[in-house]
Amino acid sequence: MRVQFNSAIGPYKGGTRFHQSVNESIMKFLAFEQIFKNSLTCLPMGGAKGGADFDPHGKSDNEIMRFCQNYILELYRHIGPRMDVPAGDVGVGAKEIGYLYGMYKRIENEFSGTFTSKGIESGGSLGRAEATGYGLCYFVEEMLKEFKNDDFKDKRVIVSGAGKVGSMAAEKAIQLGAKVVAISDISGVVHDENGIDVNLIKELSKTHNVVVDKYTLTHPDATFSPQTTDIWKIPCDIALPCATENEINLESAKELVKNGCFLVAEGANMPTTTEATKYFRTNNVLFGPGKASNAGGVAVSGLEMAQNATFQCWSFEEVDEKLHKIMKKIFRRSHEMAIRYAGRPDDLITGANIAGFMKVYQAMLQQGV
Ligand code: NDP
Ligand code: 2IT
Fold first, then answer.
1. Whose CA is nearest to atom 15 of ligand 1?
2. pTM of this prediction?
3. Are residues 195 and 73 in the same domain?
4. Separation CA 20–CA 304 (nearest Å)
5. What's the pLDDT tens digit per position in 107-157?
6. Which of 13, 28, 37, 49 is catalytic?
7. How far apart are CA 63 and CA 68, in angstroms?
8. Given the CA of residue 17, which atom of ligand 2 is nearest to it?
9. Domain membership of residue 293 as a residue range
10. N or C terminus: which one in the chain shows less Cβ crowding within 10 Å?
11. Ligand 1 binding pocket includes 204 (Cβ within 6 Å)
12. Given pLDDT bands bounded at 50, 70 and 90, which one contains residue 207?
């Protein structure tokens, strides 16, 4: 299915999710969020989301390819480089995008981009695979600088989700001087006080198989718990939920606050329940809302569209620098709106909502409602 929610500021744009939980209600809320997230990037992209309740875990490459091809047999007529540009999301990475784009090309007989997060050889952008996780850390850097006059150095960080977003967030946090002490996937949580070996996590997560439970085989000092929510019980300064919706509930929020966590930034879409979000706010935990903090992925998707449209290939450094600037700008705009409308400079939830909404609202008025 695909929900095309708003195209006031650009072609419909958003990820494709393959997961057994996919239904119309989840797609609608993700597409709705995507409108304002995409607006925050300042790039011309509308909001959409799509997917299927197909579970790629344990499927062969051939089965995944056949599913992708059949998915496109219906979707192809509704997408295009100026109409709707899907990308990856949970369960959909460069491999699946390759199969989807390949089938689209076979039907339409054109090399126009139309999908982002493609493999590099198929027209993908360098830096797209890293973009959401790296962008999240760039956003957190701004939060630390503005509200604490501090940085990542020596901070204890926990990251849920060892997928595309989580593994890259962990990698960048480490590059910026943090110690990532725990990471999780659907099999459970690995806790390593020596610092998580992100290269191993990245290596293991190349397949759709669970990986975290294999970590202790090579890292005997680490401990493993099969309960995914146990990650929120591990003392940390910064928590980066990068797995799925509603993974931090009120109980987990209380554990985090009790153990000294002072900053939470969402790499996933809506990983924090409303009650947990309120608890963070009333306990002075700095909070980065997903539509701002995880916008780096779609921002680099926008840069991939720009490269495809102009037949250019930018270097990793060029893309990463642009991503860094975009994340800083998203923070600045959300912060300004928080000061202006929420009366609380750190209310980035209100700030990002208003900053994202204003452009879409003005475009819709200009175009006649
Ligand atoms: P992936 O499928 O690559 O990774 C998801 C990871 O989360 C996997 O390691 C998965 O484990 C794990 N997981 C799933 N459920 C749980 C759980 N309950 N507890 C702990 N771990 C769990 O997806 P992405 O990294 O692409 O997406 C993650 C989140 O980020 C989603 O909310 C997505 O919408 C959002 N997002 C993604 C962007 C992107 O560009 N990819 C951009 C912006 C937001 P397993 O593999 O074992 O199932
Ligand atoms: O939730 C998201 O922002 C994504 N899955 C990325 C969307 C995109 O079009 O790159």
1. 186
2. 0.98
3. no
4. 29
5. 999 999 999 999 999 999 999 999 999 999 999 999 999 999 999 999 999
6. 49
7. 9
8. 5
9. 127-364
10. C
11. no
12. low
